[in-house]
Amino acid sequence: MAALVLMLINSCERHPGCTDPNATNYNVNAQVDNGTCQYAVTFYFDENGPNAVVNINNQSANITANYQNGSPACGINATGCANFTLPVGSYPYTASSSLTSWNGTVVVNGSGCQDVLLPQSTGSVVFYNTTNYGVVTVSINGASGQITSYITSGTPTCGFSGCATFDLPPNVSYNYTASNGNGVTWSGSIIPTADQCSQVLLQ
Question: Which domains does the chain show, CATH number per domain?
Answer without folding.
Answer: 36-117 (2.60.40), 123-201 (2.60.40)
